Known about the structure:
Layout: H1 2-38, H2 42-48, E1 63-72, E2 79-86, E3 92-100, H3 102-105, H4 109-126, E4 131-135, H5 139-148, H6 166-169, H7 175-188, E5 195-197, E6 206-208, H8 209-213, E7 230-238, E8 241-249, H9 253-260
Parallel strand pairs: 1-4
Antiparallel strand pairs: 1-2, 2-3, 5-6, 7-8
Amino acid sequence: METMKLHEQQILSEAEMERMRLDLSSQVQDRAFARQVAAVPEEEWRRTGNNLKRPRGEVSSYRFRVYVKGLVDKLGMTGGMGVAICDQDDGLVFEISKGLNAKEHEGNTELVELKALIEGLHIAVAVDLKKIKIVSDNPLLYQYFKLHQGVLPKCPHENCKSKLKLDTCKKFLTSELFNIMSQSVKESSIPAEEKIYCPYPRCSTLFSKAELQGSKGNSAGVTKQLDADMSFAINVEQNGETRSQPALVLSGTNIISSMTGIDIK
């Protein structure tokens, strides 16, 4: 009986997501048609207005902004989060807000901000949005994203454009964030033609050819062992011949696992 109820709830949830997707698609197309009509000159409207047709297309083909926000009151008693989805002209097409009890928010604003981000991503996936831009005013999320993009954080003082050095950042960053920053700086220094990405589908770890091949002329292969949990082969030119050589790589999935709670093998 319990299994049947869970199955029914899943069906209802999937039906609700499909309804939301169709409703969102309809709103986007209606707004696009309204803009098209408004852009037609009056004289042309008199001649060809009856020939205008409502644009059709999948909602996944449009670009959206997903605004996320989480809040906790000063006393740490109540909290809430909100998600708003806007089209490319910043017209609101969907919004949702949720209250959080003390157990859910734990009096931690950063936690609620992350919950809001996760909720926004879940909704975007559920309604089949393919092109989105996340908008948040949370500085921690912003800096975390910049670290993953290989951009060093700047001095927090107003009008100061100095970039922080790695050694300086180590004094106040957690070991995880410092490792992310170090890896990002290292990756940004690799020339485009030397970049090799891990072949594992769920891993985006980047290495240089020199790092994987070892020192020049060494027939033994990799001279420096990496902290590896998988291997693959790369083509190496030696003495005018091209051969396949094993290369050890770090999968990098431990970061994904710690962020999502998903055990990635």
